[in-house]
Amino acid sequence: MHPQVRWILRCQFLVTLAAAILAGLAAGLDAAVSAVLGGGIAMASAFAYAWRALRPSGQMAVDARKAFNAQVAGEAYKFAVSLVLFALVFKTYEQLAALPLFLAYAATIVVYWMALLRQQ
């Protein structure tokens, strides 16, 4: 796995853990579980993106169209994974606390922006 992807997933895990602890202290166990689920959805979608968009290919570095198409496909995978996992969580977890779920998801997504800043 690419070092940048490992860094993103590691930071996303830490943000998810922090969000779960804060939610648990503020609103109890269901809020903590909801925050873990929100962060987990972001992590799963990040992994799906990386798996699809960063597949090794001999021609990918040379062919800009293939590289672009791989990025678009990665974004599609990321969106699909997010959609399916959100639907699954909302359908199956009756004690869901929506605010911690979405806050943890959003905080975990911010890690992407941090990764872009880290490259410069």
The major beta sheet can be summarized as:
none
**Secondary structure category:** mainly alpha
> Which sequence of SSEs, written as H and E, runs from N to C?
HHHH
Low-confidence stretches: none
Helical residue percent? over 70%
Distance between the termini: 21 Å
Strand residues, percent: under 5%
* Mean pLDDT metric: 89
Shape: globular
What is the number of helical segments per DSSP (H or I, 4+ residues)? 4
Number of strands: 0
Q: Provide the gyration radius in Å.
A: 16 Å
Describe the structure.
It is globular and about 50 Å long. It contains 4 helices and no strands. By secondary structure, the chain is mainly alpha-helical. α1 packs antiparallel against α4. It is 84% helix and 0% strand. The chain starts with a helix and ends with a helix.
